[in-house]
Amino acid sequence: MAGVLFLCAAAVVVLLLAAGGAVPPPPPPEEAARMARFVLHNCDWGALATLSAQEGLRGHPFANIFSLSDGPPEPFSGSGVPYLYLTDMEISVKDLEINSNASLTVSLAQTPYCKKHGYDPQNPLCAHIIFCGSIVKVKDSEVGLAKKALFSRHPEMENWPKDHNWFFAKFNITNIWVLDYFGGLKIVTPEEYYSVKP
């Protein structure tokens, strides 16, 4: 009977998280790599900055919001890979066709965590992560993972217009900065990042 109750309780936690409910407590500040994984996994979107290729803005930074996912919303899971669903018709994707380098910022401000604790989005205790790297189309062998990751969190994507030629992409991480406490940014290597669980 105790086992059944535990399974029911675990199912409720998963459903709450999937519905945008409570976020489990973040890792301690001294575990920067885990914090980076934790924040990404608990965020559904991020600000992607590209170098603009648009007339009048060429070469200037251009930030835009994109839905993302590193895996289905179950707690303490996720691949750490930020997947995106893109179309060549999108203005930032046109920038990426010229220069695939970008930065991606995700913040716990989009979850209930910071409001619950009274943290302003700019407060370091409302952790945010800055990734630098490039956007690449996923290989055929990875499409299933990307699709499951994105459609489990963003179900309306499945019904977006087919004539927009959507494709799955990922953020290829080369540098990671973590701001989750006072005293400045912490640098995490991709190797450290992928070697831990959120």
From TrEMBL:
<feature type="signal peptide">
    <location>
        <begin position="1"/>
        <end position="22"/>
    </location>
</feature>
<dbReference type="GO" id="GO:0005615">
    <property type="term" value="C:extracellular space"/>
</dbReference>
<dbReference type="Pfam" id="PF13883">
    <property type="entry name" value="CREG_beta-barrel"/>
</dbReference>
<keyword id="KW-0732">Signal</keyword>
<dbReference type="GO" id="GO:0005737">
    <property type="term" value="C:cytoplasm"/>
</dbReference>
<dbReference type="InterPro" id="IPR014631">
    <property type="entry name" value="CREG"/>
</dbReference>
<protein>
    <submittedName>
        <fullName>Protein CREG1</fullName>
    </submittedName>
</protein>
<keyword id="KW-0325">Glycoprotein</keyword>
<dbReference type="InterPro" id="IPR012349">
    <property type="entry name" value="Split_barrel_FMN-bd"/>
</dbReference>
<dbReference type="InterPro" id="IPR055343">
    <property type="entry name" value="CREG_beta-barrel"/>
</dbReference>
<feature type="domain" description="CREG-like beta-barrel">
    <location>
        <begin position="27"/>
        <end position="195"/>
    </location>
</feature>
<dbReference type="GO" id="GO:0012505">
    <property type="term" value="C:endomembrane system"/>
</dbReference>
<keyword id="KW-0964">Secreted</keyword>
<comment type="similarity">
    <text>Belongs to the CREG family.</text>
</comment>
